[in-house]
Every structure is written in structure tokens, then in C-alpha cells.
């Protein structure tokens, strides 16, 4: 990935065919990480095109040079850039279809409860696991929650892409979370991303399971589906 200092210098020199600076201004409302990734993608695309703007074959060749996981991120950036230029996405879903289906991995709610018990029912780590699972959110999202974001019927948080979302919760959990947040200034879960990710792996290992943050998110989705929530509502709740 191109260093930001190098990127800024190149932009000042006007050495780019793709309109990166104009596009960056059009997405200022997105998260810092998303803007950084989108800019990096366009810089790489800029190096692969012959004319002033990418052609369809150039875009297809560029995107197919990445692995399936990376392609999704780069495709989102290129698609956003084309929308900025007023160009409709020219490819159908089959062009960039993954070579094999993605296997969704999750753990049971019993495992989640065991992790909470091992962490210590009233500990900070236990409350983190419970909140992450209950809200079905990402670590980066839960780290944005402050005491004032907790209401009697839900929690307001910033989700992926910098969007503000209200997640409904039960009154009982709202009271539990509000009690935990009482007196805390700033984010109620102030630890680093790496700290919380390692904590999840560690607690999973202690109960004999390999557990990742995303597996907890998938576990919540399965739990909600089993409880009778429709798939569209589950997707909306998860912020998809």
C-alpha cells in the first residue's frame, strides 16, 4: 500500500490520470479506513490503465488480479469511483463470482455463555463478549459506544462505513449495559482492536473452541434466525 506522504506528494504533482483527489472529496463522510483503502485502490488502478480513465477490460483485468477476499474490497472502491463519475457499474454478478462458496463459521450460544463464565461474570471482558454478541457487531463498532448512546430500547453506534445505526435491544440488557457504562467517560470499551481480538481467541481457547470476532457475529445471526426473526431483519440488524 502506498504511504500517505508519498500519495499526497504525487497528488500535488498532478501525476495521476484517475481523479483521486476529486473522488476523495466526494466520500469525505466515510470512515478514515474506508477512504484510505479506496484511495489506495485507485492509485493501483491508475498504474494499470493506458488512457485518462479505466476501460471495462482494464477494470476487469485489474480486479481479477486479486484474491477473492481482496477483490471484494477493491471492487467496492472502483464501483464507488464509477458512480462518482456518473457511470453505471458495467459488470454482472457472474464476472467476479468467487471460485467456491464461502463457508459461514459460527459457534453456539452455549460456547458464548461458557466464554463469559470463564472471563468472570462481572468482569470487563465478560461484558465485552456479552455486548459484542448481543449487538452482533464488529469490534471497531463496539469501541465507538459511549454511555450517552445507550437508551432504554437500544444502542446507537457507528457501523462500517461511518454510518450511524440504532440497534434495538431488550430493556433488561439496556439496563445491564447502562449500569456498566455508568460513570465511564468516552468509549465504554476503550481497549485496542488487537486487545479484544486476542481476548476472544484466548477465551475461546479456554473453553476448547477456536473463536474469532466474526464467528461471534455469525453466532448472533444464527441465534436471531432460530428465534424467528426474518432474514431481511437479521441483515438489517447486523448492518449489512
Textual characterization of the structure:
The protein is mainly alpha-helical and 240 residues long. Helices cover 55% and strands 5% of the residues. It has twelve helices and two strands, in the order ααααααααββαααα. A two-stranded antiparallel ribbon has the order 1-2. A hairpin with a 3-residue loop joins strand 1 and strand 2. Helix 3 (32-46) crosses helix 5 (68-84). The protein is elongated and about 60 Å long. The two termini are 27 Å apart. Mean pLDDT is 86; it is low at 1-15.
Structural key phrases:
240 residues; mainly alpha; two-stranded antiparallel ribbon; 12 helices; 55% helix; disordered N terminus
Count of β-strands = 2
Distance between the termini: 27 Å
Rg, nearest Å: 21 Å
Any idea what the shape is? elongated
Q: Strand order, biggest sheet?
A: 1-2
β-strand percent reads 5-15%
Write down the overall mean pLDDT.
86
The helix content, as a percent range, equals 40-55%
* SSE ordering: HHHHHHHHEEHHHH
Q: Describe the main β-sheet briefly.
A: 2 strands, antiparallel
Low-confidence stretches: 1-15
The DSSP helix count reads 12
Which structural class fits the helix and strand makeup? mainly alpha
List the helices and strands and how they pair.
Blueprint: H1 4-13, H2 20-26, H3 32-46, H4 56-63, H5 68-84, H6 109-119, H7 124-135, H8 139-142, E1 154-159, E2 163-168, H9 171-181, H10 193-206, H11 213-226, H12 231-238
Antiparallel strand pairs: 1-2
